[in-house]
Design brief:
90 residues, 2 helices, 57% helix, elongated
């Protein structure tokens, strides 16, 4: 009798959902910080969720394999993403 694929377990879907929720939060904070680069509280929240995502992604990769992501890097203050060339400008 074969065991179920690790991708068909409730744990897999729960971890994937957690990653998606954190990714959404990071995206929203990123967009907000592009227009509010001095908001220290938002930068702290962003950095907190980067740390959370890093932990979740590590667990995911260890259990299920590679995962593409953004939001790996912490930001200083002020928010610097809007100051550097965007990918399509390079």
């Amino acid at each position: 009798m074969s065991s179920a694929s690790p991708f068909q377990t409730p744990e897999y879907y729960q971890l994937l959902l957690q990653l998606q929720e954190v990714d959404f939060t990071l995206l929203e904070l990123n967009l907000y910080l592009d227009t509010h680069p001095q908001d220290v509280q938002a930068i702290q929240q962003f950095n907190h969720y980067v740390q959370e995502r890093t932990k979740l992604a590590k667990v995911y990769v260890e259990r299920y394999g590679p995962l593409q992501n953004f939001g790996r890097d912490y930001s200083g203050c002020p928010w610097t993403w809007a100051e550097v060339p965007w990918p399509w400008q390079v």
